[in-house]
UniProtKB/TrEMBL annotation:
Protein name: 3-oxoacyl-ACP reductase FabG
Protein family membership: Belongs to the short-chain dehydrogenases/reductases (SDR) family.
Gene3D superfamilies recorded: NAD(P)-binding Rossmann-like Domain (3.40.50.720)
Cross-referenced Pfam families: adh_short_C2
Native species: Prauserella cavernicola
Domain of life of the native organism: Bacteria
GO biological process: fatty acid elongation
E.C. number(s) listed in UniProt: 1.1.1.100
Length: 246
């Protein structure tokens, strides 16, 4: 039996990158999917790749808007009959040094990552607790562990996701709802491959495994945390970093 047979998973920021890789792996393991993304066209294209309406549906969702998060989660229940898994993955970057970062750039990143994850965790928990089961996976970042130059907004938000996940895990454990987080390091994507070569080389020198990670390697950890393989784990933070900054 596939690991997620009969389960319904909602994934935010699912149209590309790590979000789509998670959706693809979940679909392979039998899950029915609701893909949330700001870009509805891209989310629909992703849903079509994963098998269409019987397997995956697309919903436009701004995770900073609680009513849109409500709609996203309600779609899972209305379309597939349950909400078993939520992956809070949606995110943006607005990198700049503190000297040059605007207040708007700080607020945007905090809102999407931290408030967006809070919205998803809070709303999904309310549904899952009624059924005494559920798994929430929040995507943090290595930047939230060590802090990165030019990312005071992103590092603060990603560190906040860890604290949020642990607090939520304590609140929801006796309701049968597990909340865990993942901190990816340097993962090969269109965004990271657009880095200047000097920046890429510097990061590579910090990785004991001497390579960047692949999106599927983050997705497989999300699958572990979403499935019953991790049934006695909550409030944990798993690093997917190749050993960087141990």
């Amino acid at each position: 039996m596939a690991l997620l047979d009969g389960k319904t998973a909602v994934i935010t920021g699912a149209a590309q990158g790590i979000g789509f890789a998670i959706a693809e792996m979940f679909a392979h393991e039998g899950a029915r999917l609701v893909l949330g993304d700001l870009d509805l066209g891209a989310a629909q294209a992703a849903a079509d790749k994963l098998g269409g309406a019987n397997t995956a549906v697309a919903v436009r969702c701004d995770v900073t808007n609680s009513s849109e998060v409500d709609t996203l989660l309600a779609t899972a229940v209305e379309t597939f009959g349950s909400l078993d898994i939520l992956v809070n993955n949606a995110g943006i970057t607005r990198d700049a040094t503190m000297r040059t970062m605007t207040e708007e750039e700080f607020d945007q990143v905090i809102d999407v990552h931290l408030k967006g994850t809070w919205n998803g965790t809070r709303k999904a928990s309310a549904i899952m607790r009624e059924h005494k089961r559920g798994a929430i996976v929040n995507i943090s970042s290595l930047s939230g562990k060590v802090g990165m130059v030019g990312q005071t907004n992103y590092s603060a938000a990603k560190a906040g996701i860890v604290g949020l996940s642990k607090a939520a895990a304590k609140e929801m454990a006796h309701h049968g709802v597990r909340v865990n987080a993942i901190q990816p390091g340097l993962i090969r994507s269109a965004m990271t491959e657009a880095m200047p070569q000097k920046a890429w080389d510097q990061k590579m020198n910090e990785i004991p495994m001497q390579r960047a990670g692949e999106v599927a390697e983050v997705a497989s950890v999300a699958l572990f945390l979403a499935s019953d393989l991790s049934s006695y784990m909550t409030g944990t933070v798993l690093e997917v970093t190749g050993g960087r900054f141990m």
